[in-house]
Amino acid sequence: MVFNILTLFPGMVEAGLNTSILGRAAEKGLIRINAVDIRDFTENRHRRVDDYTYGGGAGMLMQAQPVYDAFLAAAGGRKHRVIYLTPQGRLFTQEYAAELAAEDEITLVCGHYEGIDERALEAMNAEPVSIGDYVLTGGELPAMVLVDAVSRLIPGVLGNHESADTESFGNGLLEYPQYSRPEEWMGMRVPEILLSGDHARVDAWRLEQSLLRTKERRPDLYEKYITEHPEEKAGKRAGNRKNTKKTHTGLQ
Ligand code: 6GU
């Protein structure tokens, strides 16, 4: 999958995306990050990309011409989805990531200042996408978030140790708490049930912990899940209570 990223800071997105799992995915040829410097497409001596807004008001806008010419150079002529990262966009979710993971090329447009001239966005047929209800200084971090979330859904990007199926959101719930060695650390013991070797009870405990955690931390997700699985209300299932004192989850 090819990600064309149009940005004023190509070094930032390259550095952020060539490390760890995504760096390996690029080496394996599963993804390709094509960071394009919008400033290379300016037509003035000062390589200026911004100007004042018509109608007045504070702040500068990225002009249409360099953005659109960067787009044509990166991916013009190939039919594919173009995404503009903006707090005014459609909310990026796991579902949205899964939808994008089916594409073979995406162009991401990163704005700065007060944004980009609307005509360039229209000419590129860009879909506006937001990563959450807060304001960032530019689209680079959101673009990196999107590339990460989409890439890990591409077959082969995650190894066996990083499996994508039992995780938070895969089933609409937050993930249960997990423990590694030793059995006791700083006076806190791993929940006994996890040492029991009884896989059915372990699975039941994990589901209950997922439900409790989701209910407490994300009541919105919990209500949605319970509407779809009314038999699984947290605390209603046999043999499952919130953790007793000496276990780690009691402290969360
Ligand atoms: Cl996509 N861009 C910016 N600048 N801020 C954001 C955002 C995007 N999503 C949330 N905040």
Q: What does this protein structure show overall?
A:
The protein is an alpha/beta fold and 252 residues long. It contains eight helices and nine strands. The strands form three sheets. A five-stranded parallel β-sheet has the order 2-1-6-5-7, sandwiched between helices. Strands 3-4 form a two-stranded antiparallel ribbon. A hairpin with a 7-residue loop joins strand 3 (50-52) and strand 4. Helix 1 (10-17) runs parallel beside helix 6 and helix 7 (199-217) crosses helix 8. It binds 6-chloroguanine. 6-chloroguanine is lined by residues 85-87, 89, 130-132, 134-136, 138-139, 142.
Order of strands across the main sheet: 2-1-6-5-7
Helix/sheet category: alpha/beta
**Strand percentage, roughly?**
15-25%
Ligands (ions, cofactors included) = 6-chloroguanine
What is the chain-wise order of helices and strands? EHHEEEHEHEHEHEEHH
In terms of quaternary structure, the protein is single chain
Number of helices: 8
* N-to-C span: 39 Å
Number of strands: 9
Q: What's the average pLDDT?
A: 92
* Unreliable stretches covering 5 or more consecutive residues: 238-247
Q: From the alpha-carbon coordinates, what is the Rg to the nearest angstrom?
A: 23 Å
Shape: elongated
Residue share in helix: 25-40%
Largest pleated sheet: 5 strands, parallel
Task: Throw out a few tags for this protein.
252 residues, alpha/beta, five-stranded parallel sheet, two-stranded antiparallel sheet, 8 helices, 9 strands, elongated, binds 6-chloroguanine
